[in-house]
Amino acid sequence: MLKEIVLAPGLKAIVVRDLPKLFAEAIYPPVPADAARQVTKIKKIPLTEALKNRACGINAAAFPVSLTKEDMEYLMRHAWRDLPTLELPMHENEFQRYGDAYLKNPLEGWELSWETESPQISQIVFAHLTAGDWKKAIEAEVTKGNLVPRSSLTLLPLDRPTGELLLDSLITVSDLIKFSSQFEIGLILTFISSARPLSVDAELLALPENTEVIFQENIGGSRMEGRCRAGKYRIEIEARIKRQEEGFFTIDEAAQILADSLSGGEVAELIRKMRIAFTTGTLRIRSHGDRLPVASEKDNRNFLSLVSESDMNSWLEKIDCGYRFPSIASTQPKTPNGMDEQSIRPLQRQTAQELEILAVIEKLGYLPTSLPRRIPGKPWVKYEVRQQLKWPGNKFDKAWDRLRNQRRIVEQDG
């Protein structure tokens, strides 16, 4: 790939409005405001009347003209022979030595002149122009059906939206990976390794095995970040899940899981106590390969040596701390209302009705939060939606009122 875009951990979709800038800045990365100006062109100014008339025209004022090939060869052989080969653009402060060397051995009758530009301003201009091209490319792919925009409210696919409705819609990361690859731009997904992964991320499973990914982890106080192929990383996570299902954890993993389950638990302190417990014989530590107990402290590696769940509970019981090693059930992800993933109830009927109304509004080509104003004597958006749904009784009106009160449906002023 010629360029790459590193995506934040957990990112599953991106707003279409943000995509042109994202791709443009991959090609022209942002430059710090205090970046040194760069010399981009070198020219010469005639100092004698004869040279001025020949280079700029008779009776014309002297102005900078381009250096010839012969001029550059002369300068490299004489004025700049002790300097590295000149390559533009070059930071202005680095170019100064070339300007000083020229004064000692100049082109006869010529003053050296150079043009500079701010790299930050150049980046802004080029990125802005490029973003416009990317906007057109994205719109074209949507029109062809190669990119599928989704509603930011319902996540349902939209049928070739345009205008603000398109800009406010979402494109999934998996669709963007396919789209960007045809332009030799790679989207790099970032995954955060958990001390106790319960499953492999769906996004990781969907990636081709040779796709490069970034992984980050902070387990047992050890921070690590690296890159590898999706297939290799997937195998590592699956192996960790299998080992832990069999009841074995590295010292780092066990300390992290235990600390996360305790209010104010300190990982480093737990590791220290676990190692002390090994030396006193109250906690068994095992080798990573055969899982047999190790005999010597020097054989222990926090990131590699293992403890079993039963060994941990035996130790915690001996020191009478009042808690046990967290079970898998206790580490299941929680929803905001405290239910685990397996006990989440289906959407309530009212919520389902509201989502259906929003989906129909967008299907009709409207933006729910910016509906057109009413025109006397003409059917309004609400009528069109009602005709599409044909719900009995007054449940449509009630659902519409709930959305309006929540300002998820807003009519334009004026």
Topology:
Layout: E1 3-6, E2 13-15, H1 19-27, E3 38-46, H2 49-56, E4 65-66, H3 69-77, E5 90-91, H4 92-104, E6 110-117, H5 119-144, H6 163-167, E7 170-172, H7 173-181, E8 185-193, H8 202-206, E9 212-219, E10 222-229, H9 230-245, E11 248-250, H10 251-261, H11 267-280, E12 306-308, H12 309-318, H13 349-363, H14 381-389, H15 395-405
Parallel strand pairs: 1-8, 8-9
Antiparallel strand pairs: 2-7, 3-4, 3-5, 3-6, 9-10, 11-12
Helix pairs in contact: 1-5, 10-11, 13-15
Strand order of the largest sheet: 1-8-9-10
Structurally, the number of domains stands at: 4
Radius of gyration: 33 Å
What is the structural class? alpha+beta
Explain how this protein is built.
With 414 residues, the chain is of the alpha+beta class. Helices cover 41% and strands 15% of the residues. The protein contains 15 helices and twelve strands. The strands form four sheets. It has a four-stranded mixed beta sheet. Strands 3, 4, 5 and 6 form a four-stranded antiparallel beta sheet that branches. β8, α8 (202-206) and β9 form a beta-alpha-beta unit.
Compose a concise summary of this entry.
The protein is of the alpha+beta class and 414 residues long.
Tags for this model:
alpha+beta; four-stranded mixed β-sheet; 4 domains; 15 helices; 414 residues; four-stranded antiparallel β-sheet
